[in-house]
Amino acid sequence: MSQAAADPQAPQPLPRWDAAAALAVVGQPHARASALAKVTGRAAYASDAMPPGMLYAALVRATIARGRVVAFDATRACRLDGVHAVLGPFDLAWPGIAVRGRRLRPVIDADVRFVGEEIGVVVADSDAVARVAARAVDVRYETARACLTIEAARNADAPAIAGTAAPHNVVGGVQQIAHGDLAAAERASDVVIDAHYSTAAQHHNCLEPHGCVAQWTGEGLTLWDSNQGGHLIREALAATLELPRERVRVVGHHTGGGFGSKIFVKPYHVIAALAARQLQRPVRLFMARREEFVASHQRAPTRRHIRLGATQAGRLTFIDEHITGQAGPCPLFAINAAGAANGLRLHRADALHARIERVLTNTQSPLPFRGPMVAEDIFCLEQAVDELAWALAIDPLQLRLRNLAEVDALSGLPYAGKQLARCYELGARAFGWRASPVRAAIAGGRARGSGVGALAYDATLYEPSVATLACTAQGRIVLRLGVADIGTGADTVFAQIAAEALGVPLARIDTHWGDTADTPRSIDASNHSRTCAVLGPSVRAAAQALKAALLDAAAQALQADASQLMLHDNRVACRADPARAVALAALVHAHGPIERSAARERAPEGVFAAMFGAHFVEVEVNLRSGHVRVLRAMCAHDAGRILNPRLAASQVHGGFVQGLAMALQEERVLDERSGMQLNAAMWAYRTPSIADAPASIRFIDAGAPDGGNSLGVKGLGEPPLIGAGAAIANAIHHAIGVRLRHYPITPDKVLAALRGRAA
Amino acid sequence: MTPFRLLDAASTREAAALLRTHAPHARPIAAGGDLLGLLKEGVAGSTLPTPQVLVNLASVRELARIEVDAAAWRIGAMVTLAQLARTDGLPPMICEAVARIASPQLRARTTLGGNLLQRPRCLYFRHPDIVCFKKGGSICAALGGPARAHPGALFAGRCRAGHPSDLAPVLIALDAHAQIVSSHATRTLPLAELYRGAADNATSEVQLRDDELVAALIVPGRPCAQAFEKVAPRAANEFAWTGAAVALQCDGATIRSARVAASGLAPEPHAFDVRHLAGCSVHELRPSELACALVPLEPDDDVLAARVAAARLAIERALARALRCAGALHNPRSDEPPT
């Protein structure tokens, strides 16, 4: 994704909505605009698109971890009734996806880099026939030695996975993040924690699988697609197919989960488009559930060696992390394997250091996953901070309060807003936090414990982002946004902002999104917890501009000065005499369409914008079975101004449970002989059922309007996941007195730790 | 999914006849809770051929009946789990087990017969691109793989999968018999016998011929002290690490006969040898010691050690509840309501 350079054309911020602003619509718990459509099944998803004459495609996927396809025999597959085409690596000049002027592996290719990679496609009359035919293709391979783990890939005699010279398959060199004098800080330390942690692969496993329907009309391509932002998909697809972007239209009104996996163009987009062009019929290509696991990317497994130091008084002296991420076979995606910056900025310390290595492997490439690279980091680092507190015999909450950072150490900037202390205070009060020794609550074979974990997440991803508002001939206000609604409430909150700025009831506003043909180019994708913070000010600015235009138009009609007029529901009226009014519909009738657009406001300068939070969790550990149950969670967040508390709480519920899943359950099981994923199914890849979720997950709004933008909003999409893991793990330690450093914390690890074996 | 023909059977006998006519390419389908998953995923092999004909048992009304007389319940194989749960008077641990199976949605559709005859949940068996012993391979593919991949394995044979049915141990503990119908005959055998040799049987977990159907389960009506306990990785929608069923027949406080069986531990529903409990007093037995003795394993692998812990816990809890129940039956002052 692009991070735009400073844009001198960007408008100046509007007057800030500060804490004293009297807002009528923003901040209210309005119901999700699409709620009824979703629960009644009327909401249109990409998979509902069924253009006439549509054919069904299924991918042929490699069953080896590394090597080459030497024969792709479709004889048996072609013989099946209803098969229209079987295309392998040698049948078309498949292009690679265009990324920043480079090309990835062709979307179908003989070169195989992990089990499940795309080596062919079948197009047939039905999904069932396509899938049977895909299994009937006889493929012969020349296999090569694969490296399925970080350890295997780092071996001295390991093959070079990407074919480039990367010593020990460490791609892109070793990244260093450094601040302060580490050696001096180490010398000043009375206590040092030195521990090894790890996190596991986490699959996005969206309820709605990846997929699209592609249709050509003449030279134009329409793609109904499940994504996190259609404009970026459109641009990358146009670049890949070497088409002018005007000839590509991407439609995706609702998205059944993305979590970071549906930001980028993937091979299936390109394959569906090319197959549809080849066959001159619309083609539908959706992943089966198994494919969601084996070839739809994931959060990378990481290893972490963490050292922390402090003085006896509990002053944090240094944080030093050596991190290794499992990077998959593609150097361009390796950056997603591991990171550290947000963990380092969470607490004040004299010296900060991280050394990050990303190791190429013959497993899927990592892609962003809700709190990408940050959740892994903070799950582990916040446990290490807890270890430090226990080593110092200081209450874990106290230790954190003693090390609040006033400025962002890595950028040297003050924060645009930071309410972490308030998160600690309100969270602890709501939870009833009090210091107590470990193993203090054991009865009947069960141990209870409490834990705290904090989080920081940068809000730095800005880019041009246009919103358009228009008044229709029916007198309604139409808000057009070039975003997807990935379930976070984009269908609702921007209308709230527009209604607030215009001074009209929320019900007068219709939000259009999800179709590149009738929306402006807003942000790349809904990611990095930024959609509200980046696009929200544009919506407000467009609303201000539209309001001014409507008042100007009405001034003529009413023979009054615009400054004496006001918008009132579906008309413009004189302030002094509201009976003197003109209907919006009449204005449009007289003047033609009235429409205004606005780009995002300038990114904040001289401050560092970031989200913060603190989670307080109580768990119960069954000492006989090793099973951990989270009883309750108090999630205090500084997300700036909350636009809609109902949707905010919903984000916290979902995010916390997804973090609980990562902390306690989600685990990819690979057969290390073949590289095949063994649990590529919903029933076998465990995520929490409702019965596993805590009885109470409470969102506590500990924020205040932020200085990062004129609305004062930050984000809340990812922080609730990021804060969940360490709080749970720290509560487990408090309950049983043993530290579990390797996620997910499954019963076998708990029992082994209780037996005194390596934790 | 490979296309198949779906043939509605009008009677049990006709269903068996259709299976015979189309053998070996036919299989019966109840609700399809397991079978459709296997077909959709393409799980197949030389001992697990993809069927060309499915004989639909949903059209056989007589298979969905529950009957009772003085001696026994006769529960048709097509009775749904939800139907079991709302039938008054059934042995209580049947309902206890049903409440822990899958989800309300699946319980509304899936059947007793389907539950008893479901295939293993071993991740190697379920992988479409891996050959294993149960799909015609010469050895168990899970050997040498991670223990997480093969639920079971504590009491293994050539296959290392755990049996996934929670109702199987319950019905074995209750001394149920399976009524098996073929195109020309009917036979009845103890349910435990139906599963004999499952660990070394490459084609199935049960002793059924191609043209045979489980038509009903005969469950003795005599009351006994009983309990079912399940330990599983998740609270719902989950297969058991162990689902333990205990049934005790007592004279006063003395155990006349005991039956203990468990899912998840072996390729068949594992029936423990507890003959030594006959003659013991319900007050002198120690559930935790008994559970340890029944699962006398100390594996080095942490995952298997956790499976042992789960097995002992489930058995201990079920034993403890059944013993309390037996104690209450003969001692009316106890708080525990008799079952």
Written account of the structure:
The complex is a heterodimer of chains A (759) and B (339). Chain A contains 19 helices and 33 strands. Chain A is an alpha+beta fold. In chain A, α10 runs parallel beside α18. Chain A is globular and about 85 Å long. The model of chain A is unreliable at 1-8 (pLDDT under 50). In chain B, the strands form three sheets. In chain B, strands 4-5-8-6-7 form a five-stranded antiparallel beta sheet. Chain B has a four-stranded antiparallel beta sheet with strand order 9-10-11-12, sandwiched between helices. In chain B, β4 (66-68) and β5 form a beta hairpin. Classes of the chains: A alpha+beta (759), B alpha+beta (339). Chains A and B meet through α3 and α19 of A and α10 of B.
Major beta-sheet overview of chain B: 5 strands, antiparallel
The CATH H-level homologous superfamily of the domain at 373-460 and 606-754 in chain A: Aldehyde oxidase/xanthine dehydrogenase, molybdopterin binding domain
Total strands of chain A? 33
Low-confidence sequence ranges of chain A: 1-8
**Through-space gap between termini of chain A:** 39 Å
Mean pLDDT across the residues of chain B is 94
Number of strands of chain B: 12
* Helix-strand string of chain B: EHEHEEEHHHHHEEHEEEEEHH
Contiguous helical run count of chain B: 10
Number of spatially distinct domains of chain B: 2
Helix content of chain B: 25-40%
